[in-house]
Amino acid sequence: MAQTTPNHQITVSGWAARDKSGVITPYTFKRRVNGPDDVSIKILYCGICHTDIHHVKDEWGITMYPVVPGHEITGVITEVGSNVKGFKIGDRVGVGCLAASCLDCEFCKSSQENYCDKVQFTYNGIFWDGSITYGGYSEMLVADHRYVAHVPENLPMDATAPLLCAGVTVYTPMIDSKLHESTGKRIGIVGLGGLGHVAIKFGKAFGHHVTVISTSPSKEKEARERLGADDFIISKDPKQMQSKTRTLDFILDTVAAPHSLGPLLELLKVNGELSLVGAPDKPLELPSFPLIFGKRVVRGSIIGGMKETQEMLNFCGKHNITCDIETVTPDKINEALTRLANNDVKYRFVINIGDKKPNL
Q: I need a surface site. Which of 58, 95, 263, 335 has the fewest CB within 10 A?
């Protein structure tokens, strides 16, 4: 393991955290020379994910400093390797969480690279050459083309960036539960934030009745009028929760704070499914009776494979789905991270890195 290897000869400007304070400062480092399977990308935008906070502060105990965060990247290809098919210079592309996988296991062969036990991530991972991966808080990226996706021409690059993580994170469990195969289901979205607001858009685009489940009554107007939700349940109100017992076919739980799944499971019909995509730092409470007496299923999901990522972006292009964002310049990254930790954003921050014009 090394920060760089001999093939790292390209000097790049970026922004990194150097210790557990999590403070981001300018950082100059080396990226590898574009290889035969690689594309080089001029980064235009990079979304700020809640995962970035965990990594810069080493809250999960796995950070390799200095860490250059960022796995919601959009940009333009500037160089293409000799083995690369399907990409050319000038293409609008995106890079999400994945940087490498074994390419040979059952999961890689079935386009579920995200479940490969040798998967390495866009930052704070170990690439095939033994170097530490650095993410999208930087001016350029060299990526293996197998982990790069095309961005539809009609989508703005800034509001598309968070789709590379937040978008595919909520899209994949909906596909797994076959919500794309029929319309008219009743689905619930727990939490109205960076993940939840995109999930509402997907749910409506799939043709379903969407209910937002939130602890915050103040979010009801936003959910209904701005995002198009059909119903709103205040999860702290026992009467409201009781009145909606056995009304939902599917629930997507995006909440990253500890909470009990019991009351949510009671909202599901018999044979209903609850999919977890939030990652609380403490174990969730999962009572057995709502599972047993409702024949209900709880499952987890993390991002998606590359095939699903491209399908998600194509779906967003078809339905004109993007994230609701606030753009910031690199000198405001620390302020944005603080505000994100305090849930003070609607709904994702995106760093304007290489684009002087909005909405390229």
A: 335
